[in-house]
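Troubleshooting log. The previous structure file for this entry was overwritten by mistake, so regenerating from the original sequence record. Sequence copied from the archived sheet and checked twice against the printout by T.R.
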Amino acid sequence: MTDLKILSDEELVKKFISGDTRCIDLLIDRHHQRIYSFIFLMVRHRDLAEDIFQDVFVKVIHSLRSGKYAENGRFTSWVMRIAHNLVIDYFRKQKNQQMISNDQYSYDLFNHTRFSDHTIEDKMVYEQLLSEVASLVEMLPDSQKEVIKLRHYFGLSFKEIAEETNVSINTALGRMRYALINIRKMMEERKMSLTI
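Regenerated output below.
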């Protein structure tokens, strides 16, 4: 009988999908500290971090069983994306549930530009801006593009990026620095501005 602990994440995933439920326990144990720490750093509350961690692996199990995993060799990144998305969902729900009363103030709290709806033009400009930045990111060398995406799209720390890409933290930081320099150069060449 094979010692499951020596199997890679991908091998454990395949065995779990084939019906060996022990494999998911091993995957959870293997990545518990990293994923829990990532969640805790974002929410700063132990019980909430535990709840979200459990939700992450409920979603992982459901996704694996329904055939929605096709990340070949990137199990940890995939789980981190799920964790990141669940944290964002939590904060969105919290934001929508907060109520502010206007009755206690002598002036109208809500008569302020930050509470006003953005115009269609504002939204279009913002979406265009995001699209242009995304296209610049795609033009970067692969190593720089990877660091930008892991840092800004998936919220990984530079330590996690270094582990994920098998480089030193200094190399990851250097790649980010060069990526930002290259994006600035491309923006200057195209006379782009990041203001709305």
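Residues 13 and 141 are 31 Å apart (CA to CA). Archived copy saved in two places this time.
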